[in-house]
Amino acid sequence: MESTVLIFGYSEYAVQIAKQVRSLHHVRIFVHTDGEAQRALEDGFEVERFDFSDRWHDDAQHYDAFQNVLYCALEGREENLFLTLSLRDAFVRSTIVALAGNHEDVHKLKMAGADKVFPIVQMTADLIVDLIEKPIVTDVLHKILYEKSDLQIAQITITKGSWLCGKRTHDLLWEGDLEVIIIAIVDLELHSTFVFTAKGLNHHIDEGDILVVIGYHGQIEAFRASIGGA
Q: So where are the chain's domains?
């Protein structure tokens, strides 16, 4: 049976997610504004309007299955939180993925019932495209997004005094006991530009840079502690 991806909202992040998964999954877009509906229809997606008073149980009868994934990608943080809570009440088997604006929202969305939550700084269009082009990393990303896996994507800020300050990415990637996968570095001096480790750039790591990593929760936290990261 073909899996279904339901995407709520049609923000720039939702657009990229929809376009990347449409070749492998049946995609349906749920919107609550005319502008979003028009853009989604122009991009060739099935569109359904929703209201925040909807209870979702009728939709759950059709779409609530273990292989299906729901993305909560509304631009309003409170709206996204309320939507996640409402969907969790009706969709008990599907995986719910929510996009968060910051780490405070991550905790709230998990409490509301999201299986996976990603701060949007980690889910830019360039990052998604870059991962999709790499089969091995794509398999890892699939496990994160489509299965109830313990794998996570996290960001770790390099703080003052960290032993990573002054190192280069090539040095770090050759650390034999590294238990997390470093997929990118956000260089704040370059206006928050992503520097992808797979592209071979030997980036100089400075205080304030952000590592984007994949790993299990315990491994991520151990790595964070070992480098004195925030």
A: 4-123, 151-227
Question: Vertex 179, ends 175 and 183: CA angle to 5°?
Answer: 80
| 128 three-class SS | helix
User: In 3D, which of 63, 54, 59, 55 has the Cα closest to residue 94?
Assistant: 63
Of 187, 166, 186, 170, which Cα lies nearest the Cα of 178?
Answer: 170
- Give the pLDDT of residue 157: 85
User: pTM here?
Assistant: 0.57
Nearest to 21 by CA among 107, 99, 123, 129: 129
Residue 95's identity, in one-letter code, is T
CA separation for the pair 223, 113 (Å, rounded): 27
d(CA 92, CA 118): 20
CATH class assigned to 151-227: alpha beta
Give the lowest-confidence range in 6-20, 56-70, 107-121, 177-191: 177-191
Q: First vs last Cα of the chain: how many Å apart?
A: 43
State whether CATH 3.40.718.10 applies to domain 4-123.
Answer: no
Q: What is the largest CA-CA distance in the chain?
A: 56
